[in-house]
Amino acid sequence: MRGNRLYRRDLLKALAALGGLAVSGCDRLSIERHTRSVLDAANGLTYRAQRLLIGADRLAPEYGEADISPVFRANGSTDPQDEAYRDLAGNQFTDWRLKVDGLVEQELSLSLEELRALPARTQITRHDCVEGWSGIGKWTGVPLSEILSRASVRPEARFVVFHCADALDDGGGFWVDPESIRYYESIDLIDAAHPQTILAYDMNDKPLTVPHGAPLRLRLERQLGYKMAKYLMRIELVRSFADLHGGRGGYWEDRGYEWYAGI
Amino acid sequence: MAAVLTPDTPGAERRYRRHAGLVRVTHWINVVCFTLLLMSGLQIFNAHPALYVGERSDFDHPTLSILARPSEHGIVGETVILGHSFDTTGVLGASREAGQISPRAFPSWITIPSYQDLATGRRWHFFFAWLLVPNGLAYLAWGFASRHIGRDLLPRRAALRHVGREVLDHLRLRFPRGEAAKRYNVLQQLAYLLVVFGLFPLMVLTGLTMSPGIDSAVPQLLTLFGGRQTARLIHFAAASGLVLFVIVHLVMVLVSGVWNNLRSMITGWYDLGKPGATDAR
C-alpha cells in the first residue's frame, strides 16, 4: 500500500529528526546547570543507598598472590615535576614528612621511618579505574585510623582531606594558580575508619615507585581509583570543602566527577 | 488483556483493548531509559574501549577492543575480536567529529554527550539506571499480581510445538489478524520473556557487579559473573542483545501495521480488522 509506505517514510524521518534533537539536546542539557543538579540527585541516592546497604565495615574482596597483575598500570600523574617533590625523591624521601593538621587536638609530622614503625596492614585488592579497567595489587601500609587516633580528631571534623605533591595540568592557560591544579581528595569519617583504608608505602612487597605514588598513597578499596590520592604530603581534617580549591572535595570532583565513587 | 469489543455488527471495525495502562506507561518510560542508558553507556565505554575476561584487565589480550591507530592515510579505526582484526574506520575506532576523523570507539552521534566526557556520561547513566529499576519492578509486580505474565507471556505447550511454523510465517511477513491478534504469538512470548527475565536483569546485576562498593556488600556477584571485568563484558554483550531485540521489535512494529501498533501502545486500543478478516494481505 502506497499510503502506508509514505507514512513509514515520514515516520522514519521524524524518528531520525528526534534522534538528532536528542543528541544536540543532551549536549545542551549536559552543560546546563539545572540539569546537572537533577542528574546529581542520582549520585546522592547512590551514596545513601550504598551506605545503607554496605554498612561501615564490610570488606572489599581480597585476592591471592597468584591474582596480582603482572603489570599494574599507573595513570594520572606518573612523574610529578614539582621542584620540592623532586628534591625529596632525589633523597629517597629521607626528608619527606607527612603532616596531619586541621581539626585535630594533636598536629603530627611523621617521617617514613616513623610510619613504618606503626601497626601495618597488608591486603591484595582490586583497583578499579573510573575508565573501566581493573588491576590487582598487594598493598602494605598504616591504617588511616591509627594516624587519626594519634592526632585525636576534633568532634566538629567531618572529612579527611589528602593534599598531594602532584599537579595534573601544566599550570598554563586558564589555571594560573598552581595550587588550584594540585591533586587533592577527601573522604568521610566512615571510610576513614574502615580497616582497609590504609596509607600504603609498599606495593607488591617493595617500596612504592614514583609512578604509583611514592612515598605514600591512599588505598580506599570500596571506591574507584581516582579517590586514592598518590604523593601524599599533608592530611587535613575539615568541616566542609568550601575553602578548598573548587569546593567539591577533590581534583576530579572539581572537574565534574562524583565525590562518592563507590560505583 | 481484557476483551472489550464494540458492537459486532457486519462492517464495523472491532476495537480491542490490547495493552493495560501500566504496561503502556512502563513501556514508554523503558524506551526513554534504555535509549539514554545505551548512549551514555557507549560514552563510558569510550573511556576505555576494551573488554576482558576475569577480575583484572590483561591489557595485551583484550577479548574485544575498538581502537584507533595511525596509518599512511591518517587515523584508522580497528576493531579486534578474539584476535581477529577488522577495519571499521568511520564507524568504530575512528569517526568524524566536528568535521574531521578523530580517534573514538563509538561515534559522537550515538554517545551522550556527543563529545568525550566520561564524568557527564556517568551522570546520565546512573540517573536513568535509578529510573529503570523501579520502572521494571513496577512492571514485574503488576505483571505477577494481575497474572499478565502467566497468562500473556508464558507460552502454552501446544504453541511451543508450532515455533517452526511461526518463524516461517514471520519471515513471510504473515501476521495473525482477527481473534488471533489478541494474543502474543509464541515468538513474541519467547522474545519478551528473554528480555524481561534475561537481558534486563542481567544488565542490572552486571552493572552492580562493576561497583566496588556493591562488591564489598555482595561479593557473590563476582563469583556469579566470573569477575569484575567479565561482568563488564557481559554488561556490554547483554546491551548488544537488547539492541538486537529493539531492531527486530521495531521492524516487526513497522511491517505488522505501524499505526495500529503505535495506537495500541499509546491508547491501548488495537484494531482487529473487519469481522471475518483472515490473515491474508
Automatic annotation (TrEMBL), chain A:
Domain Oxidoreductase molybdopterin-binding stretches: 94-239
Top-level taxon: Bacteria
Protein name (record): Molybdopterin oxidoreductase
TrEMBL record, chain B:
Keyword Heme annotated: no
Compartment(s) of residence: Cell membrane
Record bears the keyword Membrane: yes
One term under GO cellular component: plasma membrane
Membrane topology: Multi-pass membrane protein
Keywords assigned: Cell membrane, Membrane, Transmembrane, Transmembrane helix
BP GO terms, sorted: respiratory electron transport chain
Transmembrane segment boundaries: 25-45, 124-145, 190-214, 234-255
Chain ranges of the Cytochrome b561 bacterial/Ni-hydrogenase domain: 18-268
GO molecular function: electron transfer activity; heme binding
InterPro entries: Cyt_b561_bac/Ni-Hgenase (IPR011577), Di-haem_cyt_TM (IPR016174), Hydrogenase_cytochrome (IPR051542)
Designated name of the protein: Cytochrome b561 bacterial/Ni-hydrogenase domain-containing protein
Organism: Aliidongia dinghuensis
